[in-house]
Amino acid sequence: MWIYEKKLEYPVRVSSTNPALAKNIITQYGGPDGELAASLRYLTQRYSMPIPQAKAILTDIGTEELAHMEIVAALVYNLIKDASIEQIKRAGLDGYYADHDRALYFVNAVGNPWTATYIQSKGDPIADLYEDMAAEQKARATYEYLIQLSDDPDVTDALRFLREREVVHFQRFGEALNLVQDYMDSKKFF
Amino acid sequence: MDGQRLNLLKKIMALEFTALELNLYLDTHPNDQRALAEFNEVSQALLLAKKDYEAYYGPLLNYGFSPSHNAWRWVEEPWPWEISF
Ligand SMILES: [Fe+2]
Fold first, then answer.
1. Domain range A19-184, its CATH number among 3.40.640.10, 1.10.3210.10, 3.30.750.24, 1.20.1260.10
2. ipTM over 0.90
3. Do residues B46 and B15 make contact, with C-beta atoms less than 8 angstroms apart?
């Protein structure tokens, strides 16, 4: 069960209409290391976790990633909602416009749609938690590239928050991995 | 959105973020009594701040977790992505 809360996890503000920036940031909505992939990966891996702490952390981080998806959506929405056709064309967002107008859709920065092949659910908790730690590092790196590309200080502020969260998630997954490893050693699993 | 409402909302965001951080930490350190005490303290403050906000500006949560006394205020705008902070 999930409950919706009518608020963002972090306040989103954009300085001005900027479809060129939106075109890059949308990769954290529907790209390979984006928030949809992160959320679905964790929420589907939790079922095969052997210890309660790992089930909890995957549930809670998977839920927080949904809140991050909403922050990214709020950024993209506000960056393109008032864009003129001329601005959209100049930003190279005309292909996206042809399919989606100014609506939100799950694509990466070059327009490829989201795919389940971005994620894995291996059934082996060690393999899954290593994947999750790698996923957090890839998301952190993506936010750093986006911060380099951003020419809007308000957008950069939200990107910094999201980058910081990936660092914390990496830490928590590492702790969960240690707990799972201890558990498996104690069971003499193989 | 007026300044008073925005300030109350930001206060809730800050409290809830603190609770979220402690929640994730406690998931992998469930026996840390100090973190648990801090979590319960923040959780209490968050509950009060939400009650305060909802009395003036309507429900923050759906499905029965927030009351809606005289009118169905859940449908009211702005939705979170429409607020300018
Ligand atoms: Fe994350």
1. 1.20.1260.10
2. yes
3. yes
